[in-house]
Amino acid sequence: MGRSNKEDSRNALKRAYRDHGKKMLDNIRYRAELYNNMTDNPEVALLEKTLCLMDYDPSASEPTGIIRFFENHLWTHEPRGHILNMYGKEFMKTSALPFLLFDFQKRAVLEICNHIDIGRDILIDKSRDMGISWLIIGGVLLYYWWKPDSGNDFLAGSRKLEYVDKKGATDTLFEKFRYNLYRLHPSMFPAGFNENKHDNVAYINNPDSGSYMKGEANNANFATSGRYKAIFADEFSKWEETDGQAWTSMGDSSPCRIVVSTPWGMGRKFANLRFSEAIDVLTFHWSEHPIKGAGKWRGEHPFKKSKDVWLSAWYLDECERRKDDYLTNIGQELDIDYLSSGTPYFDNLLLQERYKETLNKYEVKEYDFEKIGNDEIQLFEQYAGRIKIYKEPVPGWQYRYLIVADVAQGLEKMDNSVMYVYDRVEKIDVAYFVGRVDTSALALILRHFGYWYNNCFLGLENNNHGHAVLDKLKYSYPFLMHEMDYTTIVDLENIRLGWNTNSATRPVMCADIRDAVNENVDGVIDPNFFKEAMTFIYNKNGKPEADKGKLDDRVIAQGIKWQLHKWLPGPRKTPEKDARFEGKKRFGGMVEGNDTEDIRTIWR
Questions:
Q1: Which of 86, 473, 486, 548 is deepest in the core (most CB within 10 A)?
Q2: Exposure pattern of 376-399 as b/e (b: 16+ CB <10 Å)?
C-alpha cells in the first residue's frame, strides 16, 4: 500500500464530502423556493405533482417521475456529527439532509420500480450504510403509496417488531416512511389524510386511493394475511428460524418480493437465494459510493489474504476501527463476504480454499451396493454412486483403519447417513459413503467395510437412530467403539456402544475437528465436507451446530473420526495368531467371557 495512495484518497474524501455538501445546500435553497411557489401558486403545485407522476425520462432537461420526487421532496436522516461537519458547518444544526441520489442509488430506484411494476422478485445485497433501506421505504414505497391510483398496497417487514415501527425512532421502517411523508408540501398530501385517523402503528392508509403500507415482524406465516403489490423484507439474512417459510409465504401474497441485507453466513435463505441464479440480484459495494470510494485504488488488503481489492482512505479507516474482529466485521459490514460473515464455527475462507483444492484432486472409483440375501451386500460400479473408494485396504496391519458413521433416519428429504474409512498410517480417508438408506442397509454397509478393511474398529454416533444400527451390529461385528470411561468387563447386553454427542463431548469433538482442519491434518477427500462445514455455526446460545435447514452429517462423522483416532492404539503390523483365540467370538477387542482383563487395557 503506497503512502501517497492513502494521502491522495484522504484528500479526495474531504473534497467529496465538501462537494456533496455544496450540492445539498444548493438543493435546499431550490426546494425552499419551489415550496414557496407551490404555496403561492396552485398551478405550480399541480405542475410539480404532474411532473413527479410522469414516467422517468432520462433525456429530459430536468428530472421527471420518481427521480424528481426524490430530488425535490425526499430527505434522509444523519445524526452523526462528524459526518455533518465534513459536509460543512452549515449542517451542524440539522440532521435532515436532502436525498440527492448517487448514481448507484438512481440505478437501484429504477430497478426496484421496474420489478414492482412487472411483478418480479429482486434481491439486494450490500455493504452497510449505503442508504438502501431509506431509499426503498422513505422513497420508493412512499412514492407508490402517495400516487392517486389504487392498488398500491405494500408490506414491510423486519426480523423484530421493534425494527418495524416505533414512534420517534428513525431507524425503524415506518419512521423512515413518516420522516418523508410529513415533510411533503401540503399540496402533495392525499386530500382526506388525517394523521390521527390514518397513521397507526405499523399501518398507514391513503384515504383517497385506499392504498396502504402495513408492517409485520418475521414469523412463519409472514404476509399470509393480505395481498400486496410488493413486499419488502429488510435485513432478510438475519431472519432466524423461519426465513424459508416466510419467503414461501411472501410468494403466495405478492408477485414482487424485495429482500435486502448485508450477508450473514452461507446457511440462511438469503444466501441460498443470492447464489441460486433463480432471482434477479443487485449488489451495492461500498466502492460504488462516491464518498466512501473517493480516491480508491486497487491494492493488497491490510488484514485479509487479498492482493487485488478496492481500497480507499475511508475503507482503511473502517478496517482499522473494526480490526478486533476483522474477518466477521469487515467481511460482513463492508465487503459483502458471505463466507466470513455471521457466526461461522470454522474459518470459512480456509474451507473455501480446501474445497477448491479437494474438488478434483483425488481420483476415486464410484460404486453403489445391492443386498445379497438378508445379511450381505455386494458393490458394483456406478456413475455418481453413493460409495467412493480412493484406496483399497493394505493387508497385514492392525488398527491401521477405522470407520466412523453418522446415522440418519433414512427418509426422503431428511439428512444423510455418512460413513468415512480412515487410513491412520497415510492419514487420509480412503473410502466414504453418503446417502439416505434405512438402518438395516447402513448396518450391512458398515459391517462390509469393517471386515474388508482389516477388521477395523467402527465408531458411530449412538444418538437417536444410531441405536438401531448398533443393535444390528453388536452381535455380527465384533470391533465396535464403546464409551471411553467404561471400566467394567464387557457385557454384550449392557455395554453402551458408540459415540454419544452431548453437552460434554460435543465441544471437544467439534474443537478437535476444527483444529485438524486448520492444521490441514484432517485427511478429508470428500469436497462436500468443506461445503457442509461452511454452514456449521454458533447458534444464538453459543452451541456449534448446522444452520437452520442445513446438514451437519459429514461434520459430525469427521468429528467422531478424530476422537476414535485419538483413543485407538497406534497402527502396527498384524502379530502372529494366538491359538487361544482361534474360533472364539471377539468383541470390542476382548475375548468374550474373559473375566480377568479390563476393557481399558485393550482400548488404550
A1: 473
A2: ebebeeeeebbbbbbbebeeebeb
Concatenating the DSSP letter of every residue in 503-550 gives TTHHHHHHHHHHHHHHTT-S----HHHHHHHTTEEE-TTS-EEEPTT-
Percent residues over pLDDT 90 in the chain: 69
Torsion from C-alpha of 377, 381, 387, 392, nearest 10 degrees: 90
Query: Residue 559 and residue 508: Cα distance in Å, rounded?
Result: 9
Distance, CA of 388 to CA of 466 (rounded, Å): 22
Cell, residue 398: 492392525
User: C-alpha grid cell for residue 350?
Assistant: 480456509
d(CA 533, CA 410): 21
Q: What is the pLDDT of residues 391-442, one digit of tens each?
A: 999 999 999 999 999 888 544 446 789 999 999 999 999 999 999 998 899 9
Residues 256, 115 contacting (CB under 8 angstroms): yes
As to burial, measured by CB atoms within 10 angstroms (0-12 exposed, 13-18 middle, 19+ buried), residue 82 is exposed
Whether residue 156 contacts residue 92, with contact meaning beta carbons closer than 8 Å, is answered with: no
- The neighbouring-strand residues paired with 471 are none
Beta strands in 407-518 (DSSP E): 417-423, 428-435, 457-460
Residue 127 has, within 13 A of its CA and on its CB side, a CA count of 16
CB atoms within 10 A of CB 261: 25
Cβ atoms within 10 Å, residue 37:
14
pLDDT tens-digit series, residues 164-189: 999 889 999 999 999 999 999 999 99
Helix ranges, 322-373 (H):
326-333, 348-359
